Here is the input.
Amino acid sequence: MPSADHDLGPQNLSEPARPVRREPRDRSPEHAEPSRFIPHVQGLRAIAVLAVVLYHFWPARFSGGYVGVDVFFVISGFLITAHLMREVTATGTVSLGQFWARRARRLLPASLLVLLFCALVAMSPYLTPTSALPNEIREIVASTFYVENWYLALNSADYLNHSGDPTTVQHYWSLSLEEQFYLMWPLIMLLAAWIGVKYFRGSRRRAIILALGVVSAASFVFCVIFTMTDPAPAYFVTFGRMWQFGVGAMVALIPALRIRHAVGSLLLGWGGILILLFVIFTFDAQTSFPGYAAALPTLGAAAIIAASNTQRWWYPTRILAIRPAQFVGNISYSLYLWHWPLIIIAPSVPFWGLTIYHRVALLGICFVLAWLTKRFVEDPARGWKVLTSRPARVTLWSSLAAMLVVAGTAGAAWAVNATAYNDGVKAIAALREDPPECFGAAFVLDAGCGSAEWGDTILPAPGFAGADRPLDAQCFVQLNDARPVSCEFGSEDGDAPVVALIGDSHAYQLLPTFQAMADANGWQLITYFKGACPWNTTPLSTPGAFGAACTQWRDGVRAQLAERDIDAVFTSAIATTPYDSAGYDSVQDAAVAGYREAWGEVLDRGIPVITVVDNPVWETDPNKCLRTRDLTECDGQRTDLLVEDDPLRAAATGLDGVTLLDFTEVFCGQKTCSPVVGGANLYRDQDHLTVTFVDTLAPRYTAAIQAALDAR
Here is the structure.
């Protein structure tokens, strides 16, 4: 998170403190030691914020741009530690009230302005899907009080593989973590300084270095272990990130780490820049992160900060000091705040498309808003005399009051839309309980529905389709979780036919429908689901812990299937899964061979397999178009949305014991695919189907499974 501390750069922290006049008790000397703005650190901010922003605009091209946040953590650790150390050296303590009040004046005005904007946007059903409203409001409140990272951690959100629509304030997780750092770090340093005076012959600096070193080392170990065992919350948990602040702190506190030698500084600075460029373009959503991998951008940022020589124009310290880099660094905080909400909101704005021109224009708007916020909000708030001329508690109480106003506005957004939300929940339940005739897939598949007309009917409504999803999240494992979790539904009769439903999220999207089918037909349903991990023996091309976890999950499922009496298996998977082609002529051949090998283990036991060709995958949630445009304007080209050579189709073709279902004609015509069929809203996000629509395919699923059971 790019903080707004532009004036805390140390000139030479190894210099002894100059005698200073002791300030009044409620004041904190901001320049207790010589200090000077450091241009190349400001330029490093520019690299960091551009990495994050470009990653969010073009994630495929800047796949590792999320590491920009890690760079900000290092910068904050460096600047804030230097600032606090100057004060401790000069006065023996830190005026916590003034320190926190300054942080509030620097960070809260712009932050709360953007949160207020997001709360107002949440009031509009045209800009915020009603189904997303509860989570949007909760996250706005969590962000307002700077606990968004803990909210996401406790809800196991996956920042890099987030399914569905993230909220407009999800990026506040990093601001929340950094505010928690501002709260804890001076307390740790004060405690260490007190221990230094009492037990280390008055050496406060040595005690502080030791304390922060221990905290950082423990944090790094925790980060690595937690990333391996539970990666989703590990991304957000505060203690798992403290070591990155600590690395910056060490550069600030240990003079030997700041390299002034010309050649050493040149190599260190450019080496750090090359490391950052490497991770920005090579890391991706499947990288096990933070963990060990976070050490690369962290050390790269520290190397750039440590490179202190500015003698030649080609030195990185001079390159990062050029005016464009300084400008972006100056507005980095506001740019970070604004860019994400605008990205989330833009597709819901009428007449706003997703072409390259629209994205570039939106990026330009982000820069303009960032500059305006810096010029008219950030800068004036820092020197607002009504606060700076009064005790720190005035700023802190004023901050709390402003936070309550934002939280209250978010609450008002819920109050305005609560009735619509509750009505939407009831409408989906009623629709699933008693769907109209010729609705959804029946409109295409049933011969008697040829004369049916649906006009502009869309059910569930585009603003509520996101809520039409499976609810049994405990049955679905993600990320590096390799546990072969199994859930059981339906009949408890020991003689009931046992049907297994296995696959990735495109199998999980069928769960509510299959639960109802099991209940209606007297089957016992058992399930195995893992995100982005189809039931296939070919390894994923995804390196690291994620690919390994998929292989381990498959092995666990294989072992459990071998021990269970199963009468039929149904499997489904997204067609775009990346497989390792090693040993095969193509990825397609590798995927087909892997499916056939996995299925062969149950086919050899006489257990039939039923599978289905994957549904179209959209670039973005088509509901964003449906909320603002005519239905006819929201179709997509078949060639863009469908994988014509779905490996599931190829694997099933000609294989005895395997039944292939293909509903492509339901989704698509000869040239285009539609997000609405027979009045049914097909999608809850860009590639997952609504439960309501899947229910309309239930007769075909049931017939295929029953035929397979009868044929045994």
